[in-house]
Here is the input.
Amino acid sequence: MAETFLDSSELVLNMGPQHPSTHGVLRVVLRLDGEKVMGTECIIGYLHRGVEKIAENRTYQMFAPYVDRMDYVAAVSNGLGYCLAVEKLLNVEAPPRAQTVRVALTELNRIASHLIWLGTHALDIGAITPLFYTMREREEILNIFEKYCGARLTTHAFRIGGLQYELYDGFEQDVSAFCDMFPARIDEYEELLSGNRIWVDRLTNIGVLNAAQCKQYGVTGPLLRAAGVRWDLRKAQPYSGYENYDFEIPIRENGDTYDRYIVRMQEMRQSVRILRQAIKRIEPGPIMAKVPKVIKPPVGEAYVSIEAPKGELGYYIVSDGSTQPYRVRVRPPSFVNLQALEPMAKGALVADIVAIIGTIDIVLGEVDR
Amino acid sequence: MRKFLKRLLFLDLIEGLVVTFRSQHPKHIYTEQYPAQSPKVAERYRGAPRLNINPENGETLCIACNLCALACPEALIVVGSERNEQTRRKELTTFTYDTSRCMFCGLCEDACPVDALELTQDFELATYTREGQIWDRQMLEEGPRPKQYKF
Ligand code: SF4
Ligand code: SF4
Here is the structure.
């Protein structure tokens, strides 16, 4: 270390696991030189529940509720990924009605997840008000989930082969009422934040991650798109009929924290656009494909990845022909994106670490599984 | 120059404050005063379990087929049954349901062929002991009996 006037040595500081701004039980070991971060090390595993191992002892249907508990903020997306993976193994496809409902619910869930992110991220940076507003809007979404499937957070909304629950009366009206109300609310958040000098100054040029670094670390989702890469699995490898929807992939150039904020705000608007199309397309028909009562996929393996709110969510399932999976491996977006903390945080100030952790949008249930 | 003036006059902060004050109107209050004001949960809500009984003769609807116990990922349902020698049918004797391990996924109620087991809209499941979380047949049929404290 270079000689300084006042002799200083490196300080090692534990941030977490009980720190409120690490969004769960994440422990970050910071090596500090004064205010400057020289290096970070993430210590994870405090919320490890062995979900992948549990899968090996459960039948395919029984495992479905467990995936909701990984990314509990976006439980519906998790359920969709798992169901699609098993459906691929079984070589069945959900009927069109089920697919449209799935798209509608996952887009609602994307908005709910981004709202949680926006509220907590703003809270970390010092803007307390947006949290109350985002929670209020999220409540509307959770009410729709509750009316549809009976649970608000860990929904277990989809089953292998389609849906368990028929839509309730008034689903379309509820969703379109939400779509009418919500864009004005996004404007409200932007009014609060986008032009606010504290917000802008604390976010611009913080935690820059360029496209090359994103690819090197396997970072996906809004982080990648904020760095200028137009990559969204809904367009790149369409599933559940996403190829028929008209929407755009918002991208930005700089790859800093402010750009990620803008990208996510735009994504919420695009989700509203998809929702509007989806509720018009819900057609009568069966909601469940022909799936045997006892699911016994043929020997083989399948990998399905979907665009979860936080990035690419992949399920890799190996079947040995029995009723229980031989191995289930999950590729959680938060876990992979969390690696990018090191390059983003190097050289930053301590106060910015909170902003950088917030911008990755991690859910520790998914990081640790 | 305009940008400088805008910064000097705190226009960006005033803009945010306008939003805040717009939401102060009593019409926009969203908070529920929970114990006084119970939320209305949806019809399909998956809450406390219930074993339905036939309202006419008070007999249980459950046919002791054990399908719910087999469907449960947590294996927390235990169905006890006995063969009735006269009718040569299985009859339900005991039924335990451990709500402390339940994740309210709804697989058991989907599995039940006669709609005997149902997850209801009741969500107040707190008890003082761990044993209190294990519901027996009587509790499942009649609902939990909360302890009443008089002050
Ligand atoms: S709700 Fe799920 S976890 Fe609870 S008893 Fe039924 S099947 Fe088991
Ligand atoms: S599935 Fe229904 S009928 Fe069969 S044992 Fe369970 S509650 Fe009784």
